[in-house]
Amino acid sequence: MTPxxxxxxxxxxxxxxxxxxxxxxxxxxxxxxxCAKSRNYDDHYGHGTHAAGIVGALDNHIGVVGVAxxxxxxxxxxxDDEGNGTTRELLCGxxxxxTTRTDSDPxxxxxxxNLSLGGVGTDDGHCGEADGDxxxxxxxxxxxxxxxxVVAAGNDHEDASHLIPAAYNEVITVSALADSDGRPGGxxxxxxxxxxxxxxxxxxxxxxxxxxxxxxxxxxxxxMPMDSTKLGDSGGYGTLTGTSFAAPHVAGAAALWISKHRxxxxxxxxxxxxxxxNYNWNNMDDPDGIKEPLVxxxxx
Length: 300
Description:
Layout: E1 4-5, E2 13-18, E3 28-34, H1 47-56, E4 72-77, H2 87-102, E5 110-115, E6 119-120, H3 134-144, E7 148-152, E8 163-164, E9 172-178, E10 200-201, E11 213-216, E12 220-223, E13 237-240, H4 247-259, H5 266-276
Parallel strand pairs: 2-4, 2-5, 3-4, 5-7, 7-9, 9-11
Antiparallel strand pairs: 1-5, 6-8, 9-10, 12-13
Helix pairs in contact: 1-4, 2-3, 4-5
């Protein structure tokens, strides 16, 4: 897993807090900032740009189409071009997002933040005030200002309740579905880039009661920086796997819903996405026995 991304629909601003975003032709990058050891928020690694394309790649007859096509992207870079960073840099990125909600310019308000990162920890049930978790405190502050946080569950095939920020109750935590054909029924065979079973929990995905939704996260084709070689793709598009790429599907769904329900609270957004989800997947290999809803925007 790696750090953070934010997405929203064409009427909503969104930010990517992690490795930044590369202003590719297929993305609507409105701006951003850097908290990493970098002069700008450009992504030369690929993780942030790939997630951003899932959220909101343009519907322009080239490449791919995001869940919320044309979403305004704000890249907030908290990791360097090798994928390394510190808690201080991550907190800086979250504060950058929060500030858009508290400054005098309503046009830059970020509504949805997608976090594809993780570390060991738990939820103290008190927004980090009981156990001194400064990351939890920062996210709770941001949520209180109206930012909906969507978080990757993690890729260790373990209980996500032991990983932060996935464990936090204030965020929407997303596990990964192996889906090879975009259709229910489990008849698509193994995904193209790795062995797994269609319409089941991805064999690497974390699970547990902290999970709110499941979304496709195996062999996901999306945008990449033209100069990226770190993840093996350098042609503007590429295929990656992980809960880091399941979460942006839900961030895009959140953006779509917010675009039609302006002023909704993060708690309302979370419940709306859960209520809209379907159960057309097979949880036979999900160790927790909990069948969380699969993200579904067909009713939006």
